[in-house]
Every structure is written in structure tokens, then in C-alpha cells.
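yo, Cytochrome b5 heme-binding domain-containing protein is done. seq:
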Amino acid sequence: MPSFDLGSPVNTALLLYILYSVQRILFPITSSPKSTPNEFKAGYSWMPKAHPPTVLFKTYTPKTLEPFSGQDGGRILLAINGTVFDVTAGRNFYGPNGMYGNFAGRDASRGMAKQSFDLEMLTPVDQPLDKLEDLQNDEIDNMKGWIDHFSNKYIVCGKLVENDAI
Ligand code: HEM
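structure:
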């Protein structure tokens, strides 16, 4: 009659394996990974530490737009024809030392239309919005070309309205 011989190496190995499997079932590993998984391996098991950055669409006025000029490394916004773009990614262009830093935090419509970064292209922030009524058709077209460029490259994050509109 066959009997269970613990002295047999095969049986010993099997017994150890069974004991190991049973303790894994009774005491599963519950520790979290040391770093957040960032690649897809048959599904994510843990939530990312933080929500990815998002941009809220907001209504700005010339006065509330002005602080977003990229000073102190902050966000950089500019408006063209009522549309506000987040151009922070273009800090080299619009940051404090950038070639187009004059547009940062401002309504850049007239400068974009006339292809000029002269400061007189900018309307003082306490004045009504520039209505652009005197612009020539080719200047309006030029401005629209820039709107296309910015729409393809940056995030539209708001609209620009008169100071007393909100
Ligand atoms: C001195 C003459 C100028 C030179 C040499 C120059 C040069 C440049 C260069 C090299 C770029 C980068 C293009 C790219 O990498 O996509 C650029 C972009 C640009 N330029 Fe000029 N530019 C000049 C005048 C102007 C003027 C007068 C304006 C006024 C509106 C202007 C507005 C812009 C804008 C808005 C961009 C796009 C930046 C962006 O993609 O965020 N440029 N320019």
C-alpha cells in the first residue's frame, strides 16, 4: 500500500510549496508600490498621486488679465480679438526677457494686426477695449492669421471682456 513518505525529496518540496501557497492566500501582500506606476502593465492598480494639470476657461478683463505677464515665473496669458490664450509654453517669446514680452498679460490684437510690438499698440488696462474699427482688411487678415497660429499652438483659456462687464 503506498504511503506518504516525508523523507522523499519530491514530497518535501511539494509540502513546502503548498505551505508557501497557503500562507500567501492567508497573508496577501498589501503594501503599496514605492513609486506611482506610470506605465500600463495589464491595468493600473493605483491612482496617480495628483490629477494632471487642467486649465479652466475663464472670463478676463484687461485688469484681471494684466497680472498674467509671467513675472516671477507665473502663467503668461494674452488676448487677441477677445480670445485669451495661455502662452506659458512660449515663455521664451513672452516672458519678461522675451522679444514679445510686451504682449504678456495684455490685449495684443492691434500689435498682431499691425505686426508691431510698439507699446502704443497696447490699450491702457483701465481704458475700454480696443474696437479695432480703423484697421485695414489686410491688417484684420494678419490678426486672424495670428489667431490661427495661436489656436494651433496654445490653449484657449478664456475670453476678454470690458472691465465693468464682470
Ligand atoms: C525684427 C523682426 C523680427 C524677427 C527677426 C522675428 C523673428 C521671429 C522668430 C525667429 C520667430 C519664431 C518662429 C518659430 O519658431 O515658430 C518669431 C515668432 C513670432 N513673431 Fe516675430 N520676428 C520679428 C518681428 C515680429 C513682430 C514685429 C511681431 C509683432 C507682432 C512678431 C510677432 C511674432 C509672434 C507672435 C511670433 C510667434 C511666437 C509664438 O509662436 O508664440 N515678430 N518671430
